[in-house]
Design goal:
With 717 residues, the chain is α/β, with parallel strands linked by helices. Helix content is 32%, strand content 21%. The relative contact order is 0.11. The structure holds 5'-O-[(S)-butoxy(hydroxy)phosphoryl]adenosine (WT7). The site of 5'-O-[(S)-butoxy(hydroxy)phosphoryl]adenosine has 22 residues, from helix 13, strand 20, strand 24 and strand 25. It catalyses: acetate + ATP + CoA = acetyl-CoA + AMP + diphosphate.
């Protein structure tokens, strides 16, 4: 079939031909952007650039990239229709004359984005049927359990049978096209298989990360209106056992009659011993709970495909915003398929070699796992690893022993994991043969110089391009990213836009787009790319408000960025109240409302501070009700409350009791000041009475509060 042979014509362009060096200036006189209002990770990226400028010799950007990128922006219809038609099966072709229709101007009417209108396809068919026919015996998924002795692999033919069975179970439980299915599962192959099963029958999957609490799960089930939940009794993570079923039970029990889950499919994952220690994991409600494996065994392994319109919903994935409840980011079928596949092949240099073994360490509960564990690689027929464990179990060489054992060629992880592993020294890496590695990737937050160096030298032995990929849940796939060997890397920079991506930096005060290089502003996008979110589930108004209301005509990412003298992008961190902790988005508003929900708390303000391993950590200023004393017990109780309500990864690092918060006369909390006081690198100066780093504090209603806050730094928090 044509799609198999022509797979990604564009990623197999002839080798790069350097362009004239005249278009590239050496970076010697780079001035780091102002640090005002930026968080810790942001600053690390800047330091990196200034310290590395000298490494760069005058070099060049691949000509074919420049030409293709220019075409992808000036004629997206022509550009993307060729890729879509050549690489995917469309049951009915899309209308090639209007591949993209959109409005980005809130001032001109509703925001809408449509790609490949008129086309009918199915992403699961493009993963499963296509490769089961073409390369049936090729390994699709490799499972690497929490216990390293537990591994398994599944060919595309086996994947097909498994996906079809789960699809039939869902159908038997009444799931129809457009219905939502919540997945709260450990990282076994059952998770990507269940996603693919939903997609096969047109159901919309809503994966909830297994580290989320029962409240977070309940809120997501309710908002998405999922009537079916697939979960597991539990999962081993490192030494610990997470009792998923009891969390799911608490979530389901908390839902009102209208929001009830009708069927809960339970994967039995725990062994006898683990069950003995977690008796509630064995609890089953016979009116609702069904043994997942038994149900799969009882149905046929053949299941007809449901053809979908290009713009039919594919999945919902919740992400934190700067205000309010989590946002149900909605992705649709055709555009997401084309974009996740195309970015995968280009960014990870996948050209169809059977020896390529791709490992993305992210959980499918995040967008990274959706696009680069499940869809991107499998759409391309590439072997993908599903890792259930954690980086430091049984020891700090887990990643590297796994790379060696499975001969991983492309490895994709988060800076926070690298920083944690770096602390363990080089020995755990050096004792393994990592010669299979070809490309190394990072995602989730800016990568700091030390971690970049270590990744490059110790892990990659200087031979593997590092792709620092900047993107978001909302973007569906990579946006700013190196393409291996197409242009020189600068450690800490996500470099240049992917095909179809038209970034703009906007000056927040003038609301004007900043032209030229060596500028810093709010990172926005001028036109749609196929993988972008189309809406927020059941809340298109909020979609318009969050992403399109700041600057008319632009999608606003919420990040700040610098474009350097060579036109390279440096993402400098969030410009809103979202924290990126260990690469996970956490809305300060959510943490604050959890605090305020405690009877003793009057008010709370949450900011991030630089943290060696997590990148950013959570610092909470809390004022207590009259007559309540801040104690170590209360501090512990509050941290526990947040962890229980939002998920363990949201547990605050510091709780700072204060008599009041610094506010302007109009009552706005001055977070800029709170961020400085939370920053450990400022503590000594502040305690010595040097308040210069706080900047202008004269707009505060009560300046004395600053002194109370600084004094509070003397207490252990
Ligand atoms: C936010 C999106 C994309 C999957 C994981 C996170 C930050 C992400 C980078 C990077 C600097 C990065 C941004 C972005 N971010 N990748 N390579 N360099 N910052 O998805 O949870 O939607 O978070 O993560 O701040 O806006 P997400």
């Amino acid at each position: 079939k044509s799609w198999a042979r022509t797979l990604s014509a564009r990623s197999t362009n002839p080798s790069p031909r350097p362009i004239s060096t005249a278009t590239l200036q050496p970076l010697t006189n780079f001035v780091p952007p102002s640090a005002a209002g930026q968080t810790g990770t942001a600053l690390m990226a800047q330091q990196l650039l200034s310290s590395r400028s000298r490494l760069l010799s005058a070099s060049a950007i691949d000509r074919s990239y420049l030409a293709d990128h220019a075409l992808s922006i000036s004629d997206p219809d022509a550009y993307w229709s060729e890729i879509a038609a050549n690489n995917y099966h469309w049951e009915k072709s899309f209308d090639a004359s209007t591949v993209l229709k959109y409005n980005f101007h809130a001032s001109k009417g509703p925001i809408h984005i449509e790609w490949f209108k008129g086309g009918k396809t199915n992403i699961s068919y493009n993963v499963v049927d296509r490769w089961a026919e073409d390369t049936p015996e090729k390994t699709a998924l490799i499972f690497e359990g929490n216990d390293p002795s537990e591994t398994a692999s599944y060919t595309f033919k086996e994947l097909k049978a498994k996906v079809f069975r789960v699809a039939n179970v869902l159908k038997a439980k009444g799931v129809k096209k457009g219905d939502r299915v919540a997945l709260y599962l450990p990282m076994t192959v059952d998770l990507p298989i269940s996603m693919l099963a939903c997609a096969r029958i047109g159901a919309v999957h809503s994966v909830v990360f297994g580290g989320f609490s029962s409240d977070a799960l309940a809120a997501r089930i309710k908002d998405s209106g999922s009537k079916v939940l697939i979960t597991a009794d539990g999962v081993g993570r490192g030494e610990k056992v997470i009792n998923l079923k009891s969390i799911a039970d608490t979530a389901m029990d908390s839902l009102g009659a209208e929001d009830q889950v009708e069927t809960c499919l339970v994967l039995e994952r725990l062994n006898e011993e683990q069950l003995k220690d977690n008796p509630t994991a064995s609890h089953r409600d016979p009116s609702r709970d069904v043994d997942f494996a038994a149900a799969c065994a009882a149905v046929s392994d053949d299941c007809p495909v449901t053809w979908m319109d290009a713009e039919d919903p594919l999945f919902i994935l919740y992400t934190s915003g700067s205000t309010g409840t989590p946002k149900g980011v909605l992705h649709t079928t055709g555009g997401y398929m084309v974009y996740s596949g195309e970015t995968f092949r280009n960014v990870f240099d996948y050209k169809g070699a059977p020896s390529d073994i791709f490992w993305c360490t992210a959980d499918c509960g995040w967008i990274t796992g959706h696009s680069y564990l499940a869809y991107g690689p499998l759409l391309s027929g590439c072997t993908s690893i599903v890792f259930e464990g954690v980086p430091n179990y049984p020891d700090a060489s887990r990643f590297w022993s796994t790379v060696e054992r499975h001969k991983v060629t492309q490895f994709y992880t988060a800076p926070t994991a690298l920083r944690a592993l770096m602390r363990e020294g080089d020995e755990p890496v050096k004792k393994h043969d990592l010669s299979s590695l070809r490309i190394l990737g990072t995602v989730g937050e800016p990568i700091n110089p030390a971690a970049w160096d270590w990744y490059n030298e110790i892990v990659g032995k200087g031979n593997c391009p590092i792709v620092d990929t900047w993107w978001q849940t909302e973007t569906g796939g990579h946006m700013l990213t190196p393409l291996p060997n197409k242009w020189p890397l600068k450690p800490g920079s996500a470099t240049l836009p992917f095909y179809g991506v038209a970034p703009a930096l906007i000056d927040p005060s003038s609301e004007e787009e900043l032209e030229g290089n060596d500028v810093h502003g709010h990172l926005c996008m001028k036109q749609p790319w196929p993988g972008m979110a189309r809406s927020l589930w059941n809340n298109h108004e909020r979609f318009e408000e969050v992403y399109f209301s700041q600057f008319d005509g632009y999608y606003c990412t919420g990040d700040g960025a610098q474009r350097d003298e060579d036109g390279y992008f440096w993402v400098t961190g969030r410009v809103d109240d979202v924290l990126i902790v260990s690469g996970h988005n956490i809305g300060t508003a959510e943490v604050e409302s959890s605090f305020v929900g405690h009877g003793d708390v009057a008010e709370a303000a949450v900011v991030g501070f630089p943290h060696e391993v997590k990148g950013e950590a959570i610092y909470c200023y809390v004022t207590l009700n009259q007559g309540v004393e801040g104690s170590e017990d209360l501090r512990w109780e509050l941290k526990k409350k947040v962890a229980e309500e939002l998920g363990a990864f949201c547990r605050p690092d510091v709780v700072h009791f204060t008599p009041a918060l610094p506010k302007t006369r109009s009552g706005k909390i001055m977070r800029r000041i709170l961020r400085k006081i939370a920053d450990p690198s400022e503590t000594d100066k502040l305690l010595a009475g040097d308040l210069e780093c706080l900047g202008d504090i004269s707009t505060l209603a009560d300046e004395a509060i600053v002194h109370d806050l600084v004094e509070g730094l003397r207490e252990p928090c």
